[in-house]
């Protein structure tokens, strides 16, 4: 087991009530669970997202913390939050990384695997 390791899982949801397809405005929520799967307590300091829509338009978002928090996680602890993004297309992808600092001063990045934002498939 790595000393400095967070595991990230993502669940996505299309927010139909906030979207307006006639204006190419599609809103998605994503629920993130971050677990300290390493052996050293560490704090999430900042985030970097790369959001790509179906037209290959890329938007990068950087900022401190997540939803106003910079969670400090002991080994085995987890932090969950929900956020969202809007795109001009009904599908797209997101990926990125969290910048973290361990209790012993070690700095490390946690990769957020790419996930798909997409309208639910509907049967007519």
From TrEMBL:
Source taxon at top rank: Bacteria
InterPro entries named among the record's database cross-references: ApaG_domain, ApaG_sf, Uncharacterised_ApaG
Gene3D superfamilies: ApaG domain
Occurrences of domain ApaG (ranges): 1-124
Record-linked Pfam families: DUF525 (PF04379)
Signal peptide positions on this chain: none
Cited HAMAP family: ApaG (MF_00791)
PANTHER family registered for this protein in UniProt: F-BOX ONLY PROTEIN 3 (PTHR14289), POLYMERASE DELTA-INTERACTING PROTEIN 2 (PTHR14289:SF16)
Name used for this protein in its record: Protein ApaG
Organism this protein belongs to: Herbaspirillum chlorophenolicum
Gene field: apaG
């Amino acid at each position: 087991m790595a000393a400095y390791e967070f595991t990230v899982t993502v669940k996505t949801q299309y927010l139909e009530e906030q979207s307006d397809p006639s204006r190419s405005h599609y809103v998605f929520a994503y629920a993130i669970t971050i677990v300290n799967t390493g052996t050293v307590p560490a704090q999430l300091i900042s985030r970097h997202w790369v959001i790509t829509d179906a037209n290959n338009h890329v938007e990068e978002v950087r900022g401190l913390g997540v939803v106003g928090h910079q969670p400090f996680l002991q080994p085995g602890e987890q932090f969950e939050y929900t956020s969202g993004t809007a795109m001009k297309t009904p599908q797209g992808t997101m990926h990125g990384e969290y910048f973290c600092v361990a209790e012993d001063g070690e700095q490390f990045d946690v990769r957020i695997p790419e996930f798909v934002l997409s309208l639910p498939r509907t049967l007519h």
